[in-house]
Every structure is written in structure tokens, then in C-alpha cells.
Design goal:
The chain is mostly helical. The chain is about 60% helix and about 0% strand. It is built from five helices and no strands.
Length: about 110
């Protein structure tokens, strides 16, 4: 299965993959998926995010997504931190929007 196929399913049906709706579970799944593709699925994703921020090329993509999601609250940048449901939703929505943008950029 390719990233472009799994992302819409993961977004709509996380329970189908045994996941809850936390950012950390989504990130862990995507990390595992990336490993399973010999790090090809997310190759360039971190760089795309770092370009959006203007720095952070040495950081994980998880950190960069959370930094984009919560630019004014650095306490929420920790992927393992507990967040309110609305914060988890915001982080996941941005993650999937960014993944769609990344997938689209690879097709062009």
C-alpha cells in the first residue's frame, strides 16, 4: 500500500488500524509505515515542514507538525504530551492536511 492510499483511510478510519485519535498514535503508525517502506514513504516530508517554518531541518517531522499546529504554545510541541481533545484534533487535522500537500507535491 502506498502513502497516498493509506493516508485517507487513516484519517477517516483510525480504529481500522487499531489507533485512537491521538497525535502520538498517528505519528507512531506513520513512523512504522515509513520504516516498512525503507524510509521512502516520508522521504522529504521533514524538509517540506522545515521550509514552511524557516528552520528545524534537524528536528523530527512530528515536532515540526506540532510546532506548526501550536506556534504560540511550545509546551504542546512534545509529541508525547497529553493534549485536550480539541488540541489532538487540531494536530491531527494539520498532520493530514500536510501529508496531502506532501503527496500532491510528489505527484507533480
Amino acid at each position: 500500500m502506498m502513502l497516498s492510499e493509506i493516508v485517507p483511510l487513516l484519517r477517516k478510519y483510525p480504529g481500522m488500524f487499531g489507533l485512537d485519535n491521538t497525535f502520538s498514535s498517528m505519528a507512531a503508525f506513520l513512523r512504522g509505515f515509513d520504516v516498512g517502506t525503507d524510509h521512502q514513504a516520508l522521504d522529504g516530508f521533514c524538509e517540506m515542514l522545515a521550509d514552511k517554518i524557516g528552520d528545524g531541518a534537524n528536528m523530527s517531522w512530528e515536532y515540526l507538525v506540532l510546532r506548526l499546529a501550536f506556534p504560540d504554545n511550545s509546551q504542546l510541541w512534545d509529541k508525547n504530551r497529553s493534549r485536550e481533545n480539541n488540541e489532538e484534533g487540531l494536530a491531527n487535522d494539520l498532520l493530514f492536511d500536510l501529508l496531502h500537500e506532501f503527496i500532491d507535491s510528489r505527484v507533480q
